[in-house]
Design goal:
Elements: H1 17-20, H2 57-71, E1 74-80, H3 85-100, H4 110-114, E2 116-120, H5 122-135, H6 147-153, E3 169-174, H7 179-189, H8 201-207, E4 210-217, E5 230-232, H9 234-241, H10 246-259, H11 262-293
Antiparallel strand pairs: 1-3, 1-4, 2-3, 4-5
């Protein structure tokens, strides 16, 4: 048996507790909590709190419909029944072409550009109409989707258009009340007899599925009469559409005044401001003459 080789002994490591633990001391400081200068809110400044979830689709639709109701002086309400996408496209195209033919070629028509056909959800649109009709005129201080608006309108009576807003509903909005543009839309979308000749066959099929229900006139921001919107039935809508334009009405008024002796009345009305201007001008000349004739004080005329 070979002899064993002795192994070197390992040094014993000794640790001191004081060498491992280092105690550090710091100067004592007073703690003062940070108080925000403004109250903390749980909503963004550009998104005010609403009665329902602000990011819900119904809330966004409510705000969109309320903006339309507040800014539209004339609105047609109609019912649509199972129109296909190609029929809607053809119908909108025909309406746009009819509106663009009202003004002479090359002239921009802002009314035609801002006339829109929109499909709405009846229940949400009815709620927005209650806010526009009852909350705005009563001095509402918050936005239309706030809890205050909800509490003020939930127990109100229904709007006259509310019974018509059941089922598939759409609206046609006009930026101003213009009988020629209203007539162009009514003749294309809601003809009394057969459809106009030369229309797209898809548009003809689509307009057979449309029913004119009523119209809402006024009650918008521009007139300053929020909540005073009036409802017109179909016969009154067609009567308004049959009226001539404002330029034609002015021409008829001038012709009527000239034919029944209105020219003398016009001349008499024009003579009032003309005589006033002449009197003031003569008075000015008199005053200027007196000023020119005055002489400085202390001067005496020189004798020859």
């Amino acid at each position: 048996m070979p002899p064993r080789i002795p192994l070197p002994t390992r040094p014993t490591l000794t640790f001191s507790l004081t060498s491992l633990i280092t105690v550090r001391t710091y100067a004592a400081t007073s703690y003062s909590p940070i108080i925000p200068s403004s109250p903390v809110t749980d909503h963004a400044p550009t998104q005010p709190p609403s009665h329902r979830a602000p990011d819900a689709r119904k809330t966004q639709l409510h705000r969109t419909y309320l903006s339309i109701l507040r800014s539209t002086p004339l609105m047609l309400v109609f019912q649509h029944n199972n129109l296909r996408a190609v029929e809607w496209s053809a119908l909108r195209r025909e309406v746009a072409m009819a509106l663009n033919k009202i003004m002479p070629a090359g002239e921009n028509d802002p009314i035609a550009n801002l006339t829109k056909v929109t499909i709405v959800r009846g229940a949400v649109f009815s709620t927005a109409m209650r806010v526009a009709e009852f909350y705005d005129p009563n001095g509402g201080k918050q936005h239309g989707t706030s809890k205050e608006a909800y509490e003020m309108t939930k127990k109100r009576k229904k709007h006259p258009l509310a019974p018509l807003l059941s089922g598939p509903v759409g609206i046609v909005t006009f930026p101003t009340v213009s009988p020629p543009h209203l007539k162009a839309v009514v003749d294309i979308m809601f003809p009394e007899g057969r459809a106009m000749k030369g229309l797209d066959p898809l548009a003809v099929v689509g307009l057979q599925k449309l029913v004119l229900l009523a119209a809402r006139v006024d009650g918008h921001v521009a007139s300053g009469d929020l909540g005073s919107g009036r409802v017109l039935e179909e016969s009154l809508v067609r009567w308004v559409a049959a009226l001539p334009g404002f330029e034609a009405l002015r021409g008829q008024l001038v012709g009527m005044l000239q034919s029944v002796g209105g020219a003398d009345l016009v001349r008499s009305l024009e003579a009032i401001p003309i005589s006033a201007v002449r009197t003031i001008d003569a008075h000015r000349k008199v005053l200027s003459g007196e000023l020119e004739g005055e002489k400085p004080e202390g001067e005496t005329p020189v004798e020859a």
